[in-house]
Specification:
single chain; mainly alpha; 75% helix; elongated; transport; transmembrane; membrane
Length: 168
C-alpha cells in the first residue's frame, strides 16, 4: 500500500519540479514585459500572468511538501538527532509523525475543505480584471495536504516496519 503512496508522492514532486522552469519564465516575462512595455508604450503583461506566477508558486510549494517528507528533507534541529541510534531516530520520527504531523495535516484538511467546496460551487473568479479563475487553485491546498497526509501514513508504516525488524 505505502509503495503506491510513495509513487504518487514522487509523481507530485516531479510535477512540482516541472513547474519551476515555467514559474521562472512567467516571472521573467512579468518583469521584462513591464519594463519593455513602458519603453514601447504598450501593456505587455496582464493580471492573468501575475496571478499565474502566484498560482505556480502555490503548486510548487504544496505539491512539493509530501515529496520533501518522502526524502526526509524538512527542516529539523539535529543537535541530538545525529548522535542517536537509527532505532531511537525511528521512534522519534514515528512519534512526531503520529502526534504532530498527521493530526495537524488532518486539521488543515478539515479547515480547507469547506473553502474549496464553496469556491467550486460559485465558480470563484479573480476580482482583478483579466484575472484567472480561483476555484482550481484553491483546490491545491486540499491536494497538497492530502498528499502530505498520505505520505505521513506511508512514513509511519515504514518506520513501524523498521522498528519491528530491528527489535532489541
Amino acid at each position: 500500500m505505502w509503495h503506491g503512496i510513495n509513487r504518487l508522492t514522487l509523481g507530485a514532486g516531479w510535477l512540482a519540479m516541472a513547474l519551476v522552469p515555467l514559474l521562472v519564465l512567467v516571472g521573467t516575462w512579468n518583469v521584462v514585459g513591464r519594463y519593455l512595455g513602458r519603453w514601447l508604450g504598450m501593456n505587455l503583461t496582464s493580471n492573468a500572468f501575475l496571478e499565474l506566477q502566484w498560482y505556480l508558486f502555490s503548486g510548487i510549494f504544496l505539491l512539493g511538501a509530501a515529496y520533501t517528507l518522502y526524502h526526509n528533507g524538512h527542516v529539523r534541529v539535529d543537535v541530538l538527532y545525529n548522535r542517536w541510534s537509527d532505532r531511537r531516530r525511528a521512534w522519534v520520527d514515528l512519534l512526531a509523525t503520529l502526534l504532530f504531523l498527521l493530526p495537524f495535516v488532518a486539521l488543515l484538511l478539515w479547515v480547507t475543505t469547506p473553502t474549496v467546496i464553496a469556491a467550486w460551487r460559485i465558480g470563484e473568479q479573480s476580482p482583478d480584471p483579466g484575472g484567472l479563475p480561483r476555484y482550481w487553485v484553491k483546490s491545491l491546498p486540499l491536494v497538497g495536504f492530502g498528499l502530505l497526509f498520505l505520505q505521513g501514513i506511508a512514513q509511519a508504516v515504514r518506520l513501524g516496519q523498521f522498528l519491528r525488524q530491528n527489535q532489541r
